[in-house]
Amino acid sequence: MIRDTLTIAKFTLIQINKSKILVNVIFLSVAIALVSYVLSEFTHGVPSKISLDIGFGLASLSSVGIAIFLGVQLLSQEMDSRTIYMIISRPVSRVSFYLGKMLGMSTFLLLNTILVSMVALSVYLKLNGPWTNLFIVTILSIALEAILTLFVVVSLALIVNNVISVVTTIALYVVGHGIEDAKNITYVVSRPWLENLLRIYSKVMPNFSQINLKRYLLYSLDLYPNSWGWSLVYALFYILFLATISILVLRNKNLD
Predict the structure, then answer these.
(1) Domain assignment of residue 191, given as a range
(2) For residue 64, how many other CB atoms are within 10 A of its CB?
(3) What is the pTM of this model?
(4) What's the gap between Cα 142 and its chain centre?
(5) C-alpha span between 159 and 187 (Å, rounded)
(6) Which of 55, 23, 63 lies closest to 135 in space, CA to CA?
(7) Could you read off the pLDDT of 4-37 as tens digits, one per residue?
């Protein structure tokens, strides 16, 4: 099973690489460099921190965008092209097929995040920004956020059509980032029932603001080990939950 999973992950990476999607790294690198140059010439603030905000923001949006728009067709494309029948007709289980595809795609998202983030970090250091170990934690949290987004959209794509999957995932992503700030709005605080509803939502649905730790880096906030540990455990638990649901659906899905 492990060998089958790794083999499928390898060919998934090769397939994604053939799509030339990594070209986005070049365009984003140029964009980060140009914006950083303009900021360094025409702003009176801290250009290094502004460039870092833009660079890491582009890294996050790039990885999440790839996760959604490639992830939604990760399995459906195999089903529509009938290649899945060739795979599962061999001694390869549906579980191995699913895990292999997700592992390959997750590896690509990690690679994309690291490449774009390294460009942003290089520009930041070039503008005399100070080094901090929070860079490593932030980059990993961005990748983890993209991987969770991937699992969300793939799980939905197994149940509903691709359009609904994409729209729902984008909505969950946006709400998941704004849910914590929404709790502090006066309108919400003055209505306990609404505050409790948002609290329940943040516990049950994906709370992306708990995973992406970029704010700690940009606003020089203290990040304690238990905060990073909680974010990691939360993301891994949700990924495992979604993977379990997807495997159960795929096992019982009629592919004829």
Answers:
(1) 2-252
(2) 26
(3) 0.88
(4) 6
(5) 36
(6) 55
(7) 888 888 888 888 877 777 787 788 888 877 877 7
